[in-house]
Amino acid sequence: MQNSALIDAAREYVLAKYRELPKPALVYHNLTHTEGVVDAVGQISAHYRLQDDELTAVYIAAWFHDEGYLLGEGKVHEETGAAAAVSFLQEHGASEALQQMVKGCILATKMPQSPKTLIEQIVCDADLFHLGTKEYPERSKLLRQEIEMVTQKEIDRIAWLQSNIRFLTEHHYWTDYAQTRLRQQKEENIQQMQKKLEKRLAAQTENNETPPAPAAPNDSTHLLATSKKKEKEKKAIKPERGVETMFRITSTNHIRLSSMADSKAHIMISVNSIILSIMLSVLLGRLEDYPNFIIPSLMFIFTSVTTVIFAVLATRPNVTSGTFTKDDIARKDANLLFFGNFYRMKLDEYEWGMKQMMNDADFLYGSMTKDVYSLGVVLGQKYRLLRISYNVFMFGLIASVLAFIIAAIFFPVKA
């Protein structure tokens, strides 16, 4: 069975199970959550070049990762879901390798998560994708409601907020894509919960209610204070969104201007190539009959050739070394955002360098500044050469046409 057909079959199988085994208490671990994980798998996978079997594995794992809630106890739902997925794949004649990949992806989502491969990391991050989105508060309420319905016990709101703050503070995404894409919103979600916790603790104190038990050094109250301190430190070094928007818009504008310059250069090259073809194939063959047009023709040819030369120089790429060293990273001299600085490096070396850069805010935004500056320097050179090309064409064309007119009027060919 082809991979796309196998994914569709897995989808239909899981949808059928949700229809056959409805569980009203599962207000969080339901079909909506499963479909959200599948969508998140698609987003993250699109960032990486996965093999066909790997892509099939992450999609099937996403569909089956919470199947265990329908088939057995929630505590072992990963094992139950993995077994159901393997059974499904065996019925459809899937390879042993694909079965093991799907099983590994599902089991890796068991808390605490333990992914060992990229595809396992993708599924783990997709399962908790909502932690870094604006949907988190609503999803958190649904999870609390589900736990209360299943256990038939009410959860204290303050204790719930404390446990959520602890969980989000200790949690980290595994893939580079999720770390970059979801980090900001996840931090905002933590801040929102901290504010809610502070309000509830203040209200409890005003109402003379029994305060929570004294916090141990590793209790959530300590985590709250520690998290606040970390947030202040991060704010001190993290640029505002406006700065990030500025980098994005500036880079986009530079790329657009570079594309415009290349288009203008191509126009000059095309037009003058046509002129040269006509001059060399038609006019030069008639110069013996019209010797008075020799100088104007040479002027025209010289103008077109010079114009083409400067247009080509404006679009000619520069060859760089394509490598960087650990010393470059240590000195923060390497700009890993430009392909010319790493295209000869191995993938693991480049990934190492990128992680070093992403973990250092000064290095990251310094690299972005260098990238914008480099684009600007290249643009300046492009437009300087392009301006010379257009000026040569404009003034040369005028001079050549005037030369033809003078030659025709003042130096006519005698019969």
Distance between the termini: 85 Å
Mean pLDDT across the residues is 82
- Please write the string of helix (H) and strand (E) elements: HHHHHHHHHHHHHHHH
Our Rg estimate from Cα atoms comes to 33 Å
Put simply, the count of helices is: 16
Question: Which structural class fits the helix and strand makeup?
Answer: mainly alpha
By DSSP, the count of extended strands is 0
How many structural domains are formed by the residues?
3
**Inertia-based shape:** elongated
- Poorly predicted segments: 213-239
Query: Could you estimate the helical fraction of the residues in percent?
Result: over 70%
Question: Nutshell version of this structure?
Answer:
Residues 26-141 form the HD/PDEase domain. This protein has 415 residues and is an all-alpha fold.
Question: Can you describe what's shown?
Answer:
This protein is mainly α and 415 residues long. The chain folds into three domains: 127 residues, Hypothetical protein af1432 (Orthogonal Bundle), CATH 1.10.3210; 83 residues; 169 residues. Helix content is 73%, strand content 0%. The protein is built from 16 helices and no strands. Pfam families: PycTM. It comes from Chitinophaga dinghuensis. InterPro entries: HD/PDEase_dom, HD_phosphohydro, PycTM_dom. This is Putative metal-dependent HD superfamily phosphohydrolase.
Helix and strand layout, with pairings?
Layout (H helix, E strand, L loop, with lengths): L2 H18 L10 H16 L5 H13 L3 H4 L5 H15 L4 H13 L9 H10 L8 H16 L5 H14 L5 H31 L13 H18 L3 H43 L10 H22 L10 H6 L15 H12 L2 H50 L5
